Amino acid sequence: MNFDDIRNRLPEFSFKQVRTLLLLGGVGVAVSILFFLLSRGQTETISDPLPAPTISEVVTQIYVDVAGKVIHPGVYQLPQGSRAIDALNMAGGAKKGVDLSDINLAHIVVDGEQLYVGGSSNMSSGPRGKLNINRASKSQFDSLPGIGPVLASRIIAYRTKNGPFTSVDDLQKVSGIGGSKFDDIKDLLRI
């Protein structure tokens, strides 16, 4: 079948019929577009749901106990990911003359942590004379059996870099504190 055969089979339309068909087709397209646009606008105004929160918008709150030589000691609620400096500021800051060099103010605080400001040797030991590994100074660690000044410095450096220990067993993560050395001192330590 060639082009002429196809052309001969189609009915012949007058100019008026072609114009009418084009006009009706154009009106149909225009009505369809108008209907689509109107129905789209109604859908947006009728059901305008709130967008679902993204993960970055969900804020988890934590509680940190700020104690010691601060203006307003107490338990403070902070957004997760806050740093020690944020907790200290919530407590009104340190009292005048307090040395903050033993606290890593940049570390991220965790829920339930206690940030003790201005601790001294007697403040770092707790019940039954146990040494708080999150507050102890280099000289206090050095006083433990088998821990010298080098290992005491490593403990302080580890705590400064990684934040507070979450359990006494975490002390084993410090290079140089093996199983037997840890067994010798674990009963002298606390969180």
Give a quick rundown of the structure.
The chain is α/β, with parallel strands linked by helices and 191 residues long.
| Shape descriptor | elongated
Assembly type: single chain
Which structural class do you get from the secondary structure elements?
A: alpha/beta
Strands of the largest sheet, in order across it? 2-1-3
- CATH topology value of the domain at 124-191: DNA polymerase, domain 1
How would you characterize the largest beta sheet?
Answer: 3 strands, mixed
Task: Tell me the number of strands.
Answer: 5
What sequence of helices (H) and strands (E) makes up the elements?
A: HHEEHEHEHHHE
CATH first level of the domain at 124-191: Mainly Alpha
Describe this structure in words.
With 191 residues, the chain is of the alpha/beta class. Among the domains are: 61-119, Ubiquitin-like (UB roll) (Roll); 124-191, Orthogonal Bundle (DNA polymerase, domain 1), CATH 1.10.150. 40% of the residues lie in helices and 12% in strands. The protein is built from 7 helices and 5 strands; from the N terminus they run ααββαβαβαααβ. The protein has helices at residues 3-9, 15-46, 84-90, 121-124, 138-142, 149-162, 179-185, and strands at residues 61-68, 74-79, 114-117, 131-132, 189-190. Strand 1 and strand 2 (74-79) form a beta hairpin.
